[in-house]
Amino acid sequence: MSTTTPENARGHRPAWSRNGRIAALITFEAATLAVASALHLTGAIHGRSRPFDAGDAGIAEAIICVALAAGAAALLRAPDRGRPVALAATGFAIAGFIAGLTFTARGGDAPDIIYHATMLPVLVATLTLLARPRGAGDDGARPQRASPADRPPAAARTAARPRRR
User: Fold this and answer.
1) Which domains does the chain have, with CATH numbers?
2) Burial label, 123 (beta-carbon count in 10 A; 0-12, 13-18, 19+)
3) For residue 12, what are the contacts with CB-CB under 8 A and spacing of at least 6?
4) Closest-CA residue to 115 (of 43, 48, 14, 29)
5) Per residue of the chain (165 residues), what is the pLDDT tens digit?
Protein backbone atom coordinates (compact mmCIF):
# COMPACT_ATOMS: atom_id res chain seq x y z
CA MET A 1 0.00 0.00 0.00
CA SER A 2 1.42 3.36 -0.96
CA THR A 3 0.55 6.75 0.34
CA THR A 4 -0.05 9.60 -2.02
CA THR A 5 1.93 12.75 -1.43
CA PRO A 6 2.25 15.76 -3.71
CA GLU A 7 5.63 14.46 -4.89
CA ASN A 8 4.65 10.91 -5.81
CA ALA A 9 1.15 11.82 -7.02
CA ARG A 10 2.76 13.36 -10.09
CA GLY A 11 5.21 10.50 -10.50
CA HIS A 12 8.21 12.40 -9.12
CA ARG A 13 10.59 10.98 -6.58
CA PRO A 14 11.45 13.38 -3.78
CA ALA A 15 14.82 15.01 -4.33
CA TRP A 16 17.71 14.18 -2.06
CA SER A 17 18.46 16.93 0.38
CA ARG A 18 21.80 18.64 0.25
CA ASN A 19 22.76 16.93 3.51
CA GLY A 20 21.75 13.57 2.04
CA ARG A 21 23.97 14.09 -1.00
CA ILE A 22 26.92 15.12 1.18
CA ALA A 23 26.33 12.13 3.48
CA ALA A 24 26.32 9.85 0.41
CA LEU A 25 29.66 11.32 -0.68
CA ILE A 26 31.12 10.80 2.81
CA THR A 27 29.80 7.22 2.81
CA PHE A 28 31.52 6.62 -0.54
CA GLU A 29 34.78 7.95 0.89
CA ALA A 30 34.42 5.68 3.93
CA ALA A 31 33.74 2.68 1.66
CA THR A 32 36.91 3.31 -0.34
CA LEU A 33 38.84 3.44 2.92
CA ALA A 34 37.30 0.14 4.04
CA VAL A 35 38.54 -1.49 0.82
CA ALA A 36 42.00 0.10 1.11
CA SER A 37 42.25 -0.98 4.74
CA ALA A 38 41.31 -4.55 3.89
CA LEU A 39 43.87 -4.64 1.08
CA HIS A 40 46.61 -3.38 3.40
CA LEU A 41 45.73 -5.61 6.34
CA THR A 42 45.54 -8.76 4.19
CA GLY A 43 48.92 -8.02 2.62
CA ALA A 44 47.58 -7.52 -0.91
CA ILE A 45 49.29 -4.12 -0.90
CA HIS A 46 52.59 -4.05 0.92
CA GLY A 47 54.59 -1.07 -0.37
CA ARG A 48 58.15 -0.74 -1.63
CA SER A 49 60.14 0.22 1.45
CA ARG A 50 60.25 1.96 4.81
CA PRO A 51 58.76 4.20 6.18
CA PHE A 52 55.62 2.67 4.59
CA ASP A 53 54.10 -0.13 6.68
CA ALA A 54 51.01 -1.83 5.25
CA GLY A 55 49.71 -2.89 8.68
CA ASP A 56 49.93 0.64 10.05
CA ALA A 57 48.31 2.01 6.90
CA GLY A 58 45.45 -0.48 7.18
CA ILE A 59 44.78 0.42 10.80
CA ALA A 60 44.88 4.16 10.06
CA GLU A 61 42.51 3.73 7.12
CA ALA A 62 40.10 1.69 9.24
CA ILE A 63 40.04 4.40 11.92
CA ILE A 64 39.42 7.12 9.33
CA CYS A 65 36.72 4.94 7.76
CA VAL A 66 34.88 4.65 11.07
CA ALA A 67 35.19 8.41 11.71
CA LEU A 68 33.75 9.23 8.28
CA ALA A 69 30.93 6.71 8.67
CA ALA A 70 30.04 8.29 12.03
CA GLY A 71 30.09 11.74 10.42
CA ALA A 72 27.77 10.62 7.62
CA ALA A 73 25.39 8.98 10.09
CA ALA A 74 25.32 12.08 12.29
CA LEU A 75 24.61 14.29 9.28
CA LEU A 76 21.69 12.11 8.24
CA ARG A 77 20.18 11.63 11.71
CA ALA A 78 20.28 15.23 12.92
CA PRO A 79 21.51 17.62 10.21
CA ASP A 80 21.90 20.68 12.45
CA ARG A 81 23.86 18.87 15.15
CA GLY A 82 25.45 16.39 12.76
CA ARG A 83 27.07 18.96 10.47
CA PRO A 84 29.85 19.84 12.97
CA VAL A 85 30.46 16.11 13.52
CA ALA A 86 30.73 15.55 9.77
CA LEU A 87 33.03 18.57 9.46
CA ALA A 88 35.31 17.24 12.20
CA ALA A 89 35.34 13.74 10.70
CA THR A 90 36.18 15.08 7.25
CA GLY A 91 38.92 17.32 8.67
CA PHE A 92 40.33 14.32 10.54
CA ALA A 93 40.26 12.32 7.30
CA ILE A 94 42.10 15.08 5.43
CA ALA A 95 44.80 15.19 8.10
CA GLY A 96 45.08 11.40 7.93
CA PHE A 97 45.30 11.43 4.14
CA ILE A 98 48.04 14.07 4.21
CA ALA A 99 50.00 11.99 6.73
CA GLY A 100 49.34 8.84 4.72
CA LEU A 101 50.43 10.50 1.50
CA THR A 102 53.76 11.52 3.03
CA PHE A 103 54.49 7.92 4.05
CA THR A 104 53.10 6.46 0.85
CA ALA A 105 55.05 8.83 -1.40
CA ARG A 106 58.31 7.72 0.22
CA GLY A 107 57.71 3.98 0.31
CA GLY A 108 54.32 2.97 -1.08
CA ASP A 109 53.29 1.46 -4.39
CA ALA A 110 52.01 3.58 -7.28
CA PRO A 111 48.33 2.53 -6.89
CA ASP A 112 48.44 3.58 -3.24
CA ILE A 113 49.95 6.96 -4.14
CA ILE A 114 47.33 7.46 -6.86
CA TYR A 115 44.54 6.56 -4.41
CA HIS A 116 45.72 9.09 -1.83
CA ALA A 117 46.32 11.80 -4.45
CA THR A 118 42.84 11.22 -5.92
CA MET A 119 40.85 11.01 -2.70
CA LEU A 120 42.50 13.99 -0.98
CA PRO A 121 40.85 16.55 -3.32
CA VAL A 122 37.53 14.71 -2.96
CA LEU A 123 37.78 15.05 0.82
CA VAL A 124 38.68 18.74 0.50
CA ALA A 125 35.64 19.24 -1.75
CA THR A 126 33.48 17.49 0.84
CA LEU A 127 34.83 19.75 3.57
CA THR A 128 34.07 22.78 1.39
CA LEU A 129 30.49 21.59 0.86
CA LEU A 130 30.04 21.05 4.58
CA ALA A 131 31.53 24.44 5.46
CA ARG A 132 29.38 26.41 3.00
CA PRO A 133 26.52 28.24 4.63
CA ARG A 134 23.25 26.53 4.08
CA GLY A 135 20.73 28.39 1.97
CA ALA A 136 17.28 27.92 0.57
CA GLY A 137 16.61 24.47 -0.76
CA ASP A 138 18.66 22.60 1.82
CA ASP A 139 15.67 20.47 2.63
CA GLY A 140 15.70 19.11 -0.91
CA ALA A 141 12.31 20.54 -1.79
CA ARG A 142 11.92 21.57 -5.37
CA PRO A 143 10.03 24.75 -6.16
CA GLN A 144 6.43 23.94 -6.96
CA ARG A 145 4.73 25.23 -10.09
CA ALA A 146 1.33 26.76 -9.72
CA SER A 147 -1.36 24.29 -10.64
CA PRO A 148 -4.11 25.33 -13.07
CA ALA A 149 -6.50 25.62 -10.12
CA ASP A 150 -4.20 28.18 -8.47
CA ARG A 151 -4.02 30.43 -11.54
CA PRO A 152 -6.57 33.14 -12.18
CA PRO A 153 -9.04 32.61 -15.02
CA ALA A 154 -7.94 33.62 -18.53
CA ALA A 155 -10.29 36.60 -18.56
CA ALA A 156 -8.66 38.00 -15.42
CA ARG A 157 -5.18 37.50 -16.85
CA THR A 158 -5.97 39.31 -20.10
CA ALA A 159 -7.78 42.14 -18.30
CA ALA A 160 -4.75 42.77 -16.11
CA ARG A 161 -2.42 43.26 -19.10
CA PRO A 162 -1.88 46.79 -20.34
CA ARG A 163 -3.11 47.39 -23.86
CA ARG A 164 -0.71 48.35 -26.61
CA ARG A 165 -1.57 51.30 -28.80
Assistant:
1) 17-133 (1.20.120)
2) buried
3) 142
4) 29
5) 444 444 444 554 445 788 999 999 999 999 999 999 999 899 887 777 777 788 888 999 999 999 999 999 999 999 989 999 999 999 999 999 999 898 888 888 888 899 999 999 999 999 999 998 766 445 444 445 555 566 666 665 566 666 666
